[in-house]
Request: fold
Amino acid sequence: MQRLSGMDASFLYMETPTHHMHVCGTLLLDPSTMKDGYSFDRFKELIRARLHLMPMLRRRVLMVPLNIDHPVWIEDPDFNLDRHIHRLTVHPPGTPHELADVVGDIASRPLDRSLPLWEMNVVEGLEDGAVALVTKMHHACIDGITGADMMSHLLDLEPDTPSVPPPADEWVPDAVPSDVALCADALVSRAKDPLRTVRALSRTGRSLIEMGRQVIGIGTDQRLRPALPFTGPRTLFNAPITANRVVAFGQARLDDLKLIKNTFATTVNDVVLAASAMTLRRYLLHHDDLPDRPLIAAVPVSVHGKTEHGGTNQVSNMFVRLPVDTDDPVEQLLRIHEETKDAKAVHNAMGADLIQDMALIAPPGIYNLALRLYALPQVSATLPPVQNVVISNVPGPPIPLYIAGARVKGIYPFGPLIEGSGVNITVLSNMGNMDFGVIACGDTVPDVWQIADGFSAAVLELRAAAKSQTAPTER
Reply:
């Protein structure tokens, strides 16, 4: 048995029938490069041959009775690959909108916790003979960095699929422990490290003091003005979410984002946030719901290699204001650049361990109860939203890649929705493109393609503004 970290376990605790905590991804593939032609079975056999490189795929989660401690992973004795890989066909003509409908339906259904928490769907019948591989994995098993690592085991540098050396040791499944054994192991785990909560409290206290010093300006040159959770306006994005998910996706040229970044002396992430602000402003304006102050975006930040905690998920958050109160794209970009500088300073002061420590301090039962109470519609609809949207930027492959011999044409990521925040925009760099996916609650943001198409248009608009400049603009 392997116990989950507090952060990994928190993604299980916060899940409800309407608040799914899985991550989806869609690989759009060109099967014309497959030797001897397309075959569904080749995808399945590739996964089977590489299972030992991705041990999480055979692990099943077990909750500890009474939430004495965090859940555990076991090597599933009933593992069956056929339960996880499925074959689907879309109705012709198989346009991107038809594919998005399939992905939205997959994302709308929670994963079965009696099985390892993942599934893959091979979608056939797309236009131009394309095939899609739609993956769904629980956030307790994956974050941006571990997802990229898993992708490296699935994807190849050439269409001729190389053989993978077999595992050094034969895989041995676990016996499913009894409830008594789970409780006993949890008590032993806590007894071995009785001071872990004390250490977490100490680190949390130091982090909060340092954050306060940065915000107030004690011992620094200037006082920061960081965006804070629970300070954003309430918009139609921030209604209680249902189980219904809709998605849309697209691509922008990475060279365009770099041109904008270089011209206005910002960062690529600033450009992503600015394009998001532009499309969200226009969406809200179209729906007569534009607030008179900025939105608050939660931006996940990887802390791999910087934290004392283990576990799969090593991630923190910074909060950034999105200036939807102005319609000038360059002004939006420059304001966001200033915002992110303050956000990064506060995030650095916060430290890499704060969020993981907070998940460790709260007893599992209380933490679970608090998250579920906030997820109640009457609660999330009354309290201010933690954030208005979530926007993630994930590094991707800079070179052509293949899976089972099929060339990867696009990689479209879809993160989870957070209760009270019905839109998530995730971008991923891929072979000179910036692939992006938008996922939303279909009952509050049904026309999600407006946001996706608006993101592409916003990048082109910023590129036009950059080309009209003769030198970097200073605020």
About this structure: Residues 54 and 149 are 9 Å apart (CA to CA). The first strand starts at residue 2 and ends at 3.
